[in-house]
Write a structure and sequence with these properties.
By secondary structure, this protein is mainly alpha-helical. The chain has 15 helices and four strands. α1 packs antiparallel against α3, α1 packs parallel to α5 and α3 packs across α6.
Length: 332
């Protein structure tokens, strides 16, 4: 993907990264739409005999023979295909769009590392405010997509949707099918909580779709750790508002740490991160209004959890609640 230039430089500064971010936002919109419109047939026990998970591919002939030998199951399957074909196609296009996004972004980042673009480098992008913002968002938004998929469409449901689509189309030779299997494969079952994302072993989920570690580490260390990439400090001048000023940046950092999760076990690094971003702001919006509770999300990571607990004591929580309640009363 070669950059587009005008006579004076890069048109729109970084059009490829801007396009990645736009694609990610479109995928999130489609994901939320589909997750709220899952066909009732996939939740109806009557259709369970014709809905299969990925184990179907271990012996597809056995599954098909069982259906073909039973006229009632054939009728149920015909009803399923007739009523859900359109939704299944949109789900497959979404899954394909997600994995293609990852493939394209990895290729772009690899080309940056190899110096294939004559007019800019990874270091040059990170030194440019707009470039750094777009690069961080293009990676962070993809991580947010993975979290949202796991949160909004369970692994059991994803597998059934994928197998149903492939069986309806009688085609198993799509270009990105292996990656789509990885996207749809069951990860960990967690009890869903509305708007609060709680995914176990997030680093394992992200490992299915990795990014170059050199890029992730450079983004974390060079930009997210110490910079104010959105220049919000100019608008939140009171030190007590620092975590609010850096909240969006902190959300990106939360996501990217799972792509380089060694940082989560670095006590000194995590104490610095918590003090700057999360000491009084531990419920973090990651994508839109969907948030994570760091006390829960970081529970498996001893050093990260310890750094947070040092700041977020019960006394501190009570004092912060009292402070904000008093502010609210004064505003009335």
């Amino acid at each position: 993907m070669e950059p587009v230039f005008s006579g004076d430089g890069l048109t729109g500064e970084f059009p490829e990264l801007l396009q990645f971010c736009a694609r990610a936002e479109a995928l999130i919109a489609e994901l939320l739409l589909l997750s709220d419109r899952v066909p009732s047939q996939f939740l109806d026990p009557r259709f369970d005999p014709v809905l299969f998970d990925l184990r179907y591919f271990e012996s597809p002939r056995d599954y098909e023979a069982r259906i073909n030998a039973n006229t009632e199951l054939q009728a149920v399957e015909d009803e399923l295909n007739e009523s859900c074909a359109s939704y299944l196609q949109r789900f497959f296009l979404l899954a394909n769009g997600v994995v293609q996004y990852h493939t394209d972004l990895v290729k772009y980042l690899s080309n940056l590392q190899e110096g294939l673009y004559a007019h800019f480098t990874l270091e040059g992008i990170l030194e440019n405010k707009h470039g750094a913002q777009l690069l961080i968002e293009s990676i962070s938004l993809f991580g947010g997509i993975l979290l949202l998929i796991e949160h909004k469409i369970s692994g059991f449901l994803r597998e059934k949707l994928l197998v149903s689509y492939l069986r309806i189309n009688q085609s198993f030779k799509f270009p990105n099918l292996e990656q789509i299997y990885s996207l749809c494969r069951l990860h960990k079952t967690t009890k869903p909580v509305p708007d609060i994302i709680n995914i176990q072993k997030t680093e394992d989920l992200f490992a299915r779709f990795p990014f170059p570690k050199v890029v992730i580490d450079a983004v974390i260390v060079s930009c997210l750790r110490n910079d104010d990439i959105y220049n919000n400090g100019h608008f939140y001048t009171d030190p007590i508002h620092r975590t609010m000023a850096l909240s969006r940046q902190g959300a990106h950092l939360f996501v990217l740490l799972f792509y380089s999760h060694g940082f989560l076990f670095d006590s000194a690094f995590m104490r610095e991160v918590v003090d700057r971003f999360f000491k009084d702001n531990w419920v973090v919006p990651v994508v839109l209004h969907f948030s994570v509770d760091l006390l829960v999300s970081w529970d498996p990571y001893r050093e990260a959890k310890a750094a947070l607990v040092e700041c977020v004591s019960p006394t501190f929580m009570r004092d912060r609640c009292t402070y904000h309640c008093m502010k609210h009363v004064m505003m009335l």
